[in-house]
Design a protein that fits this description.
alpha/beta; Rossmann fold; 8-stranded mixed β-sheet; globular; binds adenosine-5'-diphosphate; binds magnesium ion
Length: 245
């Protein structure tokens, strides 16, 4: 049985989509069969980040009852990585029922080693349904206090809901002179720090090219950090994490 991991955070723009794309490709490079799912129904951009912009059928069609899930799964050019894209037009967003997300995504674990779910920020209904589609969660925060406390709130709620909180990623570290340092962030979050991803212009450049940085520039600091995240995730057995945290 594969592992279902939600990528979540308290705020938008912290790097959830970037992490979903890079973690998926990194795990694929390590020989794992991976499905990346765009579950950010209103602000979808995972497929753009992964360089796919011509999908006919999306998660929205499935959630509207207009398509089968199998028809929304696409092979990507990245080794071992499939993708379920999302639509970007409002008409599709309006018709899709987010409450169907967990029931739609969870059965896919039978076909993959990992299902990585790109979620909306916060604790609203759309975000909750996306996050509860996973059994485990990785929180993404930036090194500033309001972002850390908002993300911590999400972690507390998800833990109460029964998810295994694997830990957090401190992303975009080094962007400003007054960034919260990693050890202080870990003290506030009271969760394991999985990896520090530095602010790296290559990450942004890769996003613009539609080729995530682990593929675009594997020697960059950003790419190395996302590869390390994949190693950390492989080290943690799902059940053990559930007992520990
Ligand atoms: N470590 C990083 N260094 C530089 N830019 C980054 C980094 N992580 C993310 N970004 C950029 O930040 C922006 C927001 O990231 P994104 O993953 O879309 O956030 P979210 O999905 O949480 O809203 C993107 O333009 C992305 O390229
Ligand atoms: Mg996003």
């Amino acid at each position: 049985m594969g592992r279902l991991i939600s990528i979540a955070s308290g705020k938008g723009g912290t790097g959830k989509t970037t992490t979903t794309a890079n973690l998926s490709i990194a795990l694929g490079k390590m020989g794992k069969k991976v499905l990346a799912v765009d579950a950010d129904l209103t602000m979808a951009n995972l497929s753009l980040v992964m360089g796919i912009d011509d999908a006919e059928t999306t998660i929205h069609d499935v959630l509207a009852g207009d398509a089968d899930i199998e028809g929304s799964i696409y092979h990507t050019s990245y080794e071992n990585v499939d993708l379920i894209p999302a639509a970007i037009d409002w008409e599709h967003v309006r018709k899709a029922d987010p409450r169907k997300l967990p029931g739609t995504i969870k059965p896919l674990r039978g076909d993959y080693d990992f299902v990585i779910i790109d979620c909306p920020a916060g604790l609203q209904m759309d975000a909750m349904n996306a996050m509860l589609s996973g059994d485990e969660v990785i929180l993404i925060t930036n090194p500033e206090i309001s972002c850390i406390t908002d993300t911590m709130k999400v972690g507390i709620v998800l833990k109460k809901a029964g998810l295994a909180v694997l830990g957090f990623v401190l992303n975009r570290y080094g962007r400003t002179d007054n960034d919260i340092p990693p050890d202080a962030a870990e003290d506030v979050m009271e969760l394991p720090l999985l990896v520090v991803v530095p602010e790296d212009p290559k990450v942004r450049e890769a996003t613009l090219e539609g080729v995530p940085v682990v593929e675009y520039d594997p020697d960059s600091e950003g790419a190395k950090a996302f590869m390390k995240l994949a190693e950390e995730v492989l080290k943690i057995a799902g059940l053990k994490a559930r007992v520990m945290y």
